[in-house]
Amino acid sequence: MIPAVMPTYARVDLAIERGEGCWLFGGDGRRYLDFTSGIAVTALGHCHPHLVKALQDQAATLWHCSNLFRIPGQEKLAQRLVDNTFADTVFFTNSGVEAMECSIKVVRKYHDDTGNPGRFRIITCGGAFHGRSLATLAAGRQEKYLKGFEPMVEGFDQVSFGNLNEMRAAISDDTAAILVEPVQGEGGIRVGSVDYLKALRQICDEFGLLLMYDEVQCGVGRTGKLFAHEWADGAAKPDVMAIAKGIGSGFPVGACLTTEKVAKGMTYGTHGTTFGGNPLAMAAANAVLDVVLAPGFLEGVQARSKVFRQRLEAIAKKHPKAIDEVRGSGLLLGIRCVQPNGQMVDALRAEGLLAVGAGDNVVRILPPLTASPEELEQGAQMIERAAAKQAASAGSA
Is residue 281 part of a domain? Predict the structure, then answer.
């Protein structure tokens, strides 16, 4: 008999009862260091006081208001995002996949409005994950997610991540845009180099294409910059960008950011949402930016993540039978395992640390951006103990 909750997840038999900062408390009576962060979602950890107060205050005032009316929280958040990014305008959604769908529509509408309705194809990269709608499944082209949902939505081509020769060769008269995650999360914490992102910007300018970034997982401070592409110092700005996850730190919020030039066609009736940009979501996201944009916050993420990564690299060097490589940027880190990554996830949970798998046999290590040096060191010690046990079991096999 099918359970009441549709069985689409391979759930761990652990019920989470409450959270506090970097810690989760399970129904098994144990306390766990949460280095999943809800898969890069809870940027400020659990029950951050500023976020809790903002939501409580808003909940006592107004939960929902149709987008048929002005929503002051939207106007405030949009202006803050415009002031701190490449963008001129923002459309708010409930999730990353909705932000991606909006981004795809923006690209198609731009080319249609500029006299090129035949330019609708988008080039994506192998290993990408852009969501689970039919369009974003086609964009990611991962067989394990597509199986059973064919025929695949038309309009997407794919090349190898990081391969500029393949990218150029894939461009046709129908090509509208290039879509890339500056850091692939689900694909195995693979970082697009600054030179790669700069070259994509140059290719788009050369061929009249739009550059789209999916910063749903790698954005909002996760790499130590507000957005990952900013490591290119302005030389790899996108035309369109989808964000979500960390911007709400656990409250469902997403957004499509774009320039005035590209968004001119997005006029009355071209797109809409019932719940996107509701007052509760805007209160949460504005509270997140209060913290993330505060002086010194991102610099602190950079400093702490540098020490933490060095620690992980030392563990990998000490236990090469367990960890093959450490990769990533900021607090979006991955350890590539020698043995199946699911075994490492289980070993870490036994030590009291929660982590999540990814492609390429990687385990994602995603501490909250608010994790202290002491908590990061505690996590490193748990990872070291798990790696030692993994190495020992490999040696005795």
Answer: yes
